[in-house]
Known about the structure:
globular, WbqC family protein, 13% strand, alpha/beta, two-stranded antiparallel ribbon, 8 helices, five-stranded parallel beta sheet
Amino acid sequence: MSARPVGVCAIHQPNFLPRLGTLAKLFAADHWIVLDDVQFARRDYQHRARIAPPGRPDLAHWLSLPTHLPDGRATLIREARLADPRRSRDLTAQAIRHCYRRSRHWQQISTVLDRVLDGFTNSNRTALVAESSTRALLDLLGWRGEIIRSSQLQGRRERSERLADLAAVTGATTYLCGPGGLRYLDHGPFKAADIRVVPFLTPTDGLWSNSRRLSALYALSELGATGLASALSETAARKGTLRLPTS
């Protein structure tokens, strides 16, 4: 197991079977703050994932969870509900088995799938199902960080100030910022809290060429848990957020 310096924080909305780039950022952190008290976005990845069979990224297709928004477009992520939990569970099981059952790493994918299906049984909240799918992947890869939901924490209202306040709650010294956040983030509140902002940009070649498009299940089907954990560790090490063991 790689040794990780304490104090690295990532803040990200709950994503269903998250993309490889998203999973890599969370894997590099000590704390994942689940951003569940912002507006639900139907075009985002909170209720859907793009999956593809091993070796065939060109056959990628959407796996979506029909979701009801009680307050319309103003609905917060944590308030979104699965329109038909039983049907979503059945469709998810069918789609994942059909897509990956021939992978040489199917047993590990099946372990993740079982956890995901349990999530449908335990809750009808889309965010909790999405969070549990990410947690299942992180657990399989040996992540030992902490998960906290933003709705349980206090913070200022302005976007960058709130993110800095959330990170500070964890005692973080480093905040991992993905490509989306880099477009709007004000570094001032982080500097005031003595938190270093580190851009987290994954490679764009090989395994990573589809990292912003496909669910991490695709990479798992290609590499298995050990290979994928190693790839994520190396990426985090290049960002200075993770110390790899020396030989």
